[in-house]
Design a protein that fits this description.
Layout: H1 5-11, E1 18-21, H2 30-39, E2 45-48, H3 60-69, E3 74-79, H4 85-97, E4 102-106, H5 127-140, E5 156-161, H6 168-180, E6 185-190, H7 194-206, E7 212-216, H8 223-232
Parallel strand pairs: 1-2, 2-3, 3-4, 4-5, 5-6, 6-7
Helix pairs in contact: 5-6
Length: 240
């Protein structure tokens, strides 16, 4: 069984690093693939966003497949916002056919915050539901309707968490649900307050939750960007 590059790094006790890339708003992936070449050998995986902030882009699966063909390790992001459980499972089976073996499950920002507001949100499954469905598929070799699959993939599964969140106990409980549903690694929202992260990590330890937690790092280009994120991006707090 060939192991996901990210899984191998984390299990070997390495300091694992991922980067994030968004597919283009269009179909020309040339710029994204040029950027990917710069990341080759420097990261254990490239998170490809799935219409982040509910803004329309090419699909995560499309760029993940292109990255894989170009020798860069992709992490497919899958939100419950735009797809039923059948569509999610179909896309994940298609991803496996390209050798994409690492995924991140997200519930997804509501279409009301996005740039295609007439789009109807689905939310058949949230992030926990997506993880649970895939874990069940892997364990039983059956699809979401309980029917036998001709071939069953295995994914290294992850989820997201917001450390700066009050009341914190809600995030801890949600995190436990995600890990129980099969998440083995966790990526946090962008962190700008180390003390807040430390307090959160202490609570995770106290709760006895076992998962690899990776801190999200967002380089700030301008003060304006920091202000914008504070006002508009859920789960991110940049101190004054």
């Amino acid at each position: 069984e060939i192991m996901s590059l990210l899984e191998k790094a984390l299990l070997d006790g390495q300091f694992a690093i991922t980067a994030e890339m968004a597919p283009p708003k269009g179909y020309d992936f040339a710029e994204a693939l040029e950027t990917a070449q710069l990341l080759k050998g420097k990261v254990h995986g490239v998170n490809v966003t799935d219409m982040q902030s509910a803004c329309l882009k090419a699909s995560s699966l499309g760029l993940c497949a292109q990255l894989k063909l170009n020798g860069v390790e992709p992490i497919i992001q899958m939100t419950g916002r735009d797809r039923s459980r059948m569509a999610i499972m179909g896309d994940m089976l298609a991803a496996a056919s390209f050798g994409i073996d690492t995924m991140l499950a997200l519930t997804g920002d509501h279409t009301m915050v996005g740039d295609c507001k007439a789009s109807k949100p689905v939310y058949d499954l949230d992030s926990v539901g997506i993880l649970r469905m895939l874990s069940t598929m892997e364990a039983t070799g059956k699809d979401c309707g309980g029917n036998d699959l001709a071939s069953t993939p295995t994914f290294y599964k992850g989820a997201a968490v917001t450390p700066v969140y009050e009341p914190q106990i809600l995030q801890i409980n949600k995190l436990r649900q995600k890990v129980d549903a099969g998440a083995r690694y966790i990526q946090t929202q962008g962190i700008f307050d180390l003390d807040a992260l430390k307090r959160f990590m202490d609570e995770v330890d106290k709760a006895g939750i076992k998962a690899h937690i990776m801190a999200g790092i967002i380089p700030l280009k301008t003060a304006g960007m920091a202000k914008y994120m504070n006002e508009n991006v859920p789960g991110i707090a940049v101190p004054q």
